[in-house]
């Protein structure tokens, strides 16, 4: 899009966008680190992740303040207004993604020993990879405004949801086999749920990008696929 | 002049106002309106429905034709020798450019408020009383006093001036003068009020008062306003029409125009990307 006559308004909008990109990068790192801390039982990395989440919270507050100032000073309309709203909402989602990573890092600290079950570890790792890919794809789409990529992210969430469902079943079986597994499996279950939530946040971000670019809402054919609530007897 | 929109002819037959697709009566209708100033063409085939009891804002950069269009609606362009108007403008099923139309009567039905407040160099009372008197709207002195008081009340000015109606209108503040001009326009019971940047010479408080007034007047009058302030258009109007280089680019609900305009030129203009 062509530039504003008032160049400082352009800079305001660019500043918001680059803050989102920066927050997105940090959120990705936090998710990656927290899962690594969990899988490798790396307590120091877990600690650093929990600490780094504070920065993400701080960045979100600053971005929110910038948005309010821009709205008050520029009275944006049309696409400009949508960009600012998208920035506000996306920053909220990214902040929540950080919280999810922090939760996983805390679980990593709580779990007493290394995984002795490779299957479960691989399951969690694979799910985390998918969620990270979704997060990366949606952040790229934020920069490019590629609506097709946005719709792909929306569709991709289904896969994470079904992985979560199958991991849930696996963990359940494992707990029933030997009650001594329950503590670790419960922690893992929460971690898996947190990763599943990260996927949902990526979808939220996709919806906001779609609205920002097109002015319309992303058609809601979004399949709600967390089936764990119906697998219980 | 011929009708081009077949669907409105139907409604004409029984004398009722034609309605828009969403059921709002159309007070004025412009049909392929063109305007030439000498050799230079200022408006190109403008089609626009002015909805009854709505505020329609005309926006666009300087020289886009919005004021020219506004002035077509009560034939103010007749006063410019080199100006030629083509196409058709209909008020309540009547072609206002029909030679049988009495232009003085038309301008009573379609009143106008200008950019700079222009009270007559007479008393506040006389400013408002002048129109009803020349149009013979008052039978007696008390009739006339009644009209003046009601008009000033509707314009939200009565309380401020009721004790000094014989003082000159030019002695009022800018904002009060503009509301006096609105009272003067209302006094002849118009059906449509045209406003050409009515707030551009006013401070923010006076502007807010006039905007509040516009919203109240909408109940009884149909209003068309030209404004350079995007925020004002967004605040006061229900419909917005964007003009550019003599063309009507986009017309729609104000809410839609300011959140999700369909045309890139509209988007660029309202967000401040060209002017």
What does this structure look like?
The complex is a heterodimer of chains A (233) and B (275). With 233 residues, chain A is an all-alpha fold. Chain A has helices at 7-40, 43-74, 78-110, 118-144, 147-177, 182-214, 228-231. Chain B has a single domain (5-120, 190-270), classed as Rossmann fold, CATH 3.40.50.300. Chain B is 36% helix and 24% strand. Chain B has 11 helices and 10 strands. In chain B, strands 6-7-8-3-9-10 form a 6-stranded mixed sheet, with helices on both faces. In chain B, strands 2-1-4-5 form a 4-stranded antiparallel sheet, with helices on one face. Chain B starts with 5 loop residues before the first helix and ends in a 5-residue tail after the last helix. The model of chain B is unreliable at 1-14 (pLDDT under 50). At the A-B interface, α3 of A face α9 and α11 of B.
| Spatial strand sequence of the major β-sheet of chain B | 6-7-8-3-9-10
Task: List the chains of the largest interface with their residue counts.
Answer: A-B, 17 and 16 residues
> Which structural class is indicated by helix and strand composition of chain A?
mainly alpha
Kindly report the average pLDDT value of chain B: 91
Q: Tally the helices of chain A.
A: 7
SSE topology:
The complex is a heterodimer of chains A (233) and B (275).
Chain A: H1 7-40, H2 43-74, H3 78-110, H4 118-144, H5 147-177, H6 182-214, H7 228-231
Helix pairs in contact in A: 1-2, 1-3, 1-4, 2-3, 3-6, 4-5, 4-6, 5-6
Chain B: H1 6-13, E1 26-37, E2 40-51, E3 55-59, H2 66-72, E4 83-91, E5 94-95, H3 103-109, E6 110-113, H4 124-134, H5 141-154, H6 158-161, H7 174-187, E7 192-196, H8 204-217, E8 222-226, H9 230-236, E9 239-244, E10 247-253, H10 254-259, H11 264-270
Parallel strand pairs in B: 3-8, 3-9, 6-7, 7-8
Antiparallel strand pairs in B: 1-2, 1-4, 4-5, 9-10
Helix pairs in contact in B: 4-5, 4-7, 5-7, 7-8
